[in-house]
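Lecture 7 notes: from sequence to structure.
We start with the chain below.
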Amino acid sequence: MAQNRCKGFRPRVQKLNLDNNVASGARLGRESGVFLTVVPRGMRGGREAIFMGGRGVRAYWLAAVWLCLSGFGLGMGADSARADTLEWALVQAYQNNPSLNAQRAALRATDENVPQALSGYRPKLSVTANGGYNYTNSTSAFPLTTGGPINTIQFAQQFLSRGVGATGSYTLFNGWQTANKTRQAESQVDAMRETLRVTEQQVLLDAATAYMNLLRDQAILDLNRRNVEVLTEQLKQTRDRFNVGEVTRTDVAQAESRLAAGRSALLGAQSNYVTSQANYRRVIGVDAGRLAPGTPVDRLSPRTLPRAIAEGQAQSPSVLAAAYGVDVAALAVKVSEGALYPSLTLTASVTQGTNPAFETLQQTAASAVAALTVPIYQGGAEYSTIRQSKETLGQQRLNLDVNRDQARATVVQSWGQLDAAKAQIEATTAQVNAAEIALNGVREEARVGQRTTLDVLNAQQELVNARSALVTAQHDRVVASFTLLAAVGGLSMPHLGLNVDIYDPMVHYQQVRDAWIGVRNPDGR
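Predicted structure tokens for the same chain:
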């Protein structure tokens, strides 16, 4: 964790304070979810299993559920309290997800745009040095007298020369390009922070979805496993009754067909469970353990749809990132226009040389020159750049409108999905209760010969389907609450109030903003 802290993590310890008083059916697996409602009734070791009354079935399955829970706890003992929770999974994804860590690194790279822009306010200094071997060979010819013979003199000389110099330059005015580039870089940092929030929300939403998917598929797998056990026992009982002449061969074939279908569904549930396990490992970063029930986060979302739409359009990180993109594009226009303004620079230099030339022992030179450059015409490229920047600005403004419309549509869609999931829980709960009563009645009627084996099988399958629908509705309820919270821009660790070190992008930004020199990153790399 020390390595993460130097990259921008700051300690934040806060108790989890989620709403535990949720409506009936909201907590998957506790009130009416994984372990209590998905186990089919009606299986018993003796031959009376299919025709037991409702009270006997309920008492038997309470014991069976206890055995099921005990089976999950084998080898754990006192560690049963260490079951993975949804909140724990969110913390693991927040700290370990590679996509989120990559986006944080991208933000730290964008932070460097600010000191690069600020460098325009700072002087530029350079030092030069030279030294080397010099050789001169010359021949001179001149007449001794007018019209007389020519006299030739040859001269050769070698010497060592060396020198050192320093040059400094400072931009006094460049059409406000440095100021606009600095503001543009700061807007780029703000936009990238909102992009980081987009990634963070998506990772947390993916983590919640992966957790609930695995919890749902685990419940459906257990449901199908128990259903196969019930159908196996029912086939056995049907064959025994066929042997004594109570039923026909058709009843046996119907039981065999239903058992084959149950085994096929079990294989499909196992495949889905394995896939969800792999996806959980990819998103959360660790293998799944024993999962505790998940809790929705409705209390953190707005209470009304109009308020949710307003918050989504104002606080959605996608909308804010697009708004900062407009600022970046507007400042790019000003930077391009700066090329049309005059520029004023001051250059100073000093050099000192020893034996810089033949018969020169030492030479010192110094200069300070101010240069004013007024652009007249440079081929028209700067005008094209300005026009191009204005078109980009118009595009970014349109993108902002697109993101606002998309934010509104996402909020409305998420709100509808959450309402539908709540209604589905109520409907499927009633469906499960009715299917249980119907199954018990059909079994009693079959015991006295008023119903056929097919009627019992159909009633059993209806109960299995109802419990599967209830599990799925409970899953959708939790996922939809996280989706709505992300749509309004509230799916973040501080808002969830989880106990975790919060990544603060301002830490790295302040470390590099005013750094004049240095090649090492703040984390030591």
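Points to note: The mean pLDDT is 82. The radius of gyration is 39 Å.
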